[in-house]
Prior knowledge:
Elements lengths: L1 H20 L5 H16 L3 E3 L4 E3 L3 E6 L2 E3 L11 E3 L1 E7 H5 L2 E10 L2 E7 L2 E2 L24 E18 L2 E15 L6 E10 L1 E9 L2 H5 L4 E9 L2 E9 L5 E9 L2 H7 L15 E9 L4 E11 L2 E10 L5 E12 L3 H4 L28 E13 L2 E13 L2 E11 L2 E10 L5 E12 H9 L4 E14 L3 H7 L1 E14 L3 H7 L6 E4 L1 E9 L2 E10 L3 E10 L4 E10 L8 E2 L2 E6 L4 E4 L1 H9 L3 H20 L9 H20 L4
Parallel strand pairs: 7-10, 8-10, 20-21
Antiparallel strand pairs: 1-4, 2-3, 3-6, 4-5, 5-8, 6-7, 8-9, 10-11, 11-12, 12-13, 13-14, 14-15, 15-16, 16-17, 17-18, 18-19, 19-20, 21-22, 22-23, 23-24, 24-25, 25-26, 26-27, 27-28, 27-29, 29-30, 30-31, 31-32, 32-33, 32-34, 34-35
Helix pairs in contact: 1-2
Amino acid sequence: MRWIVRIGITLVLAAVVLVAALLLLPGDRLARLAIEQIRKQTGREVTVAGEVKLSFWPVLGVETGPVTVANADWASAAPMLQAQGLAIGVAAPALLGGEVRITRILAQDPVLRLETAKGRVNWEFSPSGVTGGAAAPATSGAGGQLVTLDGLELKNARLIYVEEGKTSFDFGGVDLSASWPATDAPLKMAARLEPGAGPISVDLTLADLGAFSNEQVSAMQMTMAAPRTSITFDGRASIDGALAGTATLDTSDSSAMLAAFGQSGISLPRGLGQRADLKAQVTYTADGRLALRDLAADLDGNRLNGAADVTVADPPQVTARLTADALDLTGLGAASGGTGSGGGDTGSGWSETAIDASALALANGSLHLTARSIALPGLELGQSALGLSLDNSRAVVEMAPVSLFSGQLTGQLVANNRNGLSVGGDLRAEGVEMREALATLGGIERLSGAASGELKFLGVGQSEAQIMRSLSGEGRLAMGRGVISGFDLDNLMGRGAKGGGTTVFNSLTASYRMDKGNLFNEDLLMLLDNFKANGTGRVGLGARDIDYLFTPVALRANAGQGIAVPVRIVGPWADPAIRPDLSQVIEAATGLDKEAVETKAKDELRRKLGEELDTEITPDQDVEELIKDRLEQEATKGLLKLLGAD
């Protein structure tokens, strides 16, 4: 806004000078005089090329060819303003009454280069011979005349903005118009620009241009329209960029909106603002700090309230505290490529699709969220209090607590994408329903009951499958009364049947460690009314398989010593084989291991066979050859008897 006021003033002063000499001087002489006055008022070199055309009544007008206004001496060598043509009109009757009423300022194909460096701006002009002076106020012209503006037009303008020697934006095709018909009337501006993929139009009303141009606060209303988007502001503003008031944003397609502002290729997940309706009390300071209070947001049906503070930087620094009722964030799954048995899966069952974690670098800061429920991809959270901190592509989620699987979780989860993606956690659970947890996380539905425990884990990889195959960590589990479906321990121990059914237990405890995607347990203890059971084995978290030996003991059998019938669970999670391990039963009954049992059985077989053959059989003899020889001998004897031989 400042550059419009300052440049407009210099052009007005030129017009006044032209009026003074209008009837006496030819066009080229008049142009040179105007240029000299502009140079004095701005301290900048000004050049005008081409023919100068004049008009006299009722509009005192000047039209020129190409015009150039030099840059500040500390800025770049490129001109601050260039235009292919310039036209200025002043109302002649008003001028006779001592009022400078500009009816028209038109710049054709202008290129405006705005630069800032070390607190200086190139649109501040210092008149020649005045040290540290500022331009004349917007409400006065030469000699103190009142200055007003009926119309300012920039056609097909190119805007360049440079901060500390680096170009922040550079786009063309800008059309701008402004009107300030009276000193006590508001300034009205309208602009159309296209910095990205789609046009943006802006309508702005400034209540007090005089106060605004003199670095005071003025009421301001603004309406901005972008593709499928409307943005409004109603409040106060100052020329240094600070403002305060009520702002709204309503978009039915945030991707199209961002593309129109030059941020193409960004697609927010459903639930985070593909469609958005926001309203807040906004305060923005000249140093780039944005405060949002009384924030009310509707993001794809997710309603949030609260407050936020944003520091404009690269990346932005965000601090927010929000509350919500029910949040639906299931759309996050589509953004990350999905999980489960999608198109990128392999036989492991985990997705091999690469996880895009680039969103961790979009901002730094912290967020505190409380919600009645949160629906995530494949996961339902109940009443939850969550804290999220982001720092240089590393996110930490604090749960304090989170309702999950009918229980509660506390602790933290970490996702780090600084040098490749890694995920980890340190969690504590109370009252978690195991059937819900295992069915959701691993497709296992055989174990049910409330559990408590602890878990520390770390996984590294660029896909779900890589992470699951790399898991390491440790934990413990404790359950009260629960059920295992798929086999009936009473049936198995009483009649040896290995069919279906259920086993109800009174308690279960276990500790475990994880390494390279495998979970190892050696101390499972399950207590039932008539049995106890121990367990040891491996659960393949990456391969989604299991090899586990479950050993129930009948406490009231064998004179109170118990009878053990081990059960081996082997195979994929989806359909493991569950069968008694008879080798374990034999070992328990004989006190011998499997190899010793086999050796003893072979010795007994040789003894029995030796008795039948009436010979001693040693371990190194071939039993098959002995039987063959004995059959030949018996056949020979039978043949001799048949022939009547002795």
